[in-house]
Amino acid sequence: MLATSALWWCAVLLARAWGLSPAWAVPPPAAHALLMSQGFMPLFMAGFLFTAGPKWLGLGEQKAQRLLRPVVLMLLGWALAITGFHLHGLLAATGLALVAIGWSHISWMFMGLVRRSRMDDRLHPGVVAVACGVGALALWLATAALALDLEPLLRSATQLALWGFAASVFAAVSHRMIPFFGASAVPRLDAWSPTWLLWVLLGLLWFELLPALVEPWWWPLPAAVRWLQVAVEIPASVLLLWLAVRWGLVQSLKIRLLAMLHGGFFWLGLAYALNAASHTLMALSGHELSLGLAPLHALTMGYLGATLIAMATRVSSGHGGRPLAADNTAWALYWLLQVAVLLRVLAALWPTAQTSVVTALTLLAVLAWTAATTGWALRYGGWFGRPRADGRPG
């Protein structure tokens, strides 16, 4: 799904650059945002939550067959939804309804694991379970938006999925896993992750969610709202960038797989810094000036994308019976993805008057992203379904 999403959007942008105009039943930006926030992310989370989740909760291993039907339903739903993006909104809504059913079922199963657990510390799984429920709600809202042809509702649902679901899950996992992995690999580091820090991370994300939900219905927002955002985003960016260093960003550079994880988190701090600069420009210019989509892509491609690749590489290696390390292939794919993020952010920051440069940077970004994600899917996807390399069961 990761590779399919990239290939589809790459084809769309290349067609546009060549002067071709494919049919659209759903506005392209809205379709792109919906697929990239809710397409491959829930599938990755499903696998992660039913392998790492039971360990966090003190439960036994879960049978993969439990996930088969809802995952197949989600894949079928996205096939219909992507087709519907081009043919008819009701077809897209039907497909997304299947995705919503599948993810709602998976979320309910994970909530059941949390309820059955007798562990004293269920904070992180509990936060993730709530966020998964928010993701299900966002999918149902998006389904209604497609059926009723309400683009503002579709955009709000996508923002809810991005900040309240995907980013919230990743923040909870980052808070638990990054300091733990760092302390395990680098003895000089300690697994510093106080509970209050998790609530601060989640609070910052939901603070960004509130105006993002309102923007599709009320634009432009008052300057006072933008200044309030800036007042929070500047210290937030400082905190997040300091936290990346505190958790061992520099020390992790000697261990590739750990560096991949830390590099993803570093983008979260950069995203807040870019948001602060963008909202400052909006407040000063009456929304005439901004940094465009640069902060958004720093968050999505940078933080979420790089973290996903790092975690999926680690999980695929571990469960495939291979060393927990990033070899040259994984390392090259990761840096190709980083190049894609930099190019896309640069395209958003480039003066819009220079259309040809912006177009070239955007195309280079999508080509690099597609090469990185497709290359990853081909390499690691070839491991799935095969016996473990170390001969152990699984």
How would you explain this protein's 3D organization?
- The chain is mainly α and 394 residues long.
- It has a domain at 26-176.
- 78% of the residues lie in helices and 0% in strands.
- It has 15 helices and no strands.
- Helix 2 (28-38) packs parallel to helix 8, helix 7 (123-148) packs antiparallel against helix 8 (151-185) and helix 10 (223-246) packs antiparallel against helix 12 (256-285).
- The chain starts with a helix and ends in a 13-residue tail after the last helix.
- 44% of the residues are buried.
- The mean pLDDT is 93.
Quickly describe the structure:
The protein has helices at 2-17, 28-38, 41-49, 52-56, 65-87, 89-116, 123-148, 151-185, 195-214, 223-246, 249-252, 256-285, 294-319, 328-349, 355-381. With 394 residues, the protein is mainly alpha-helical. It has a domain at 26-176.
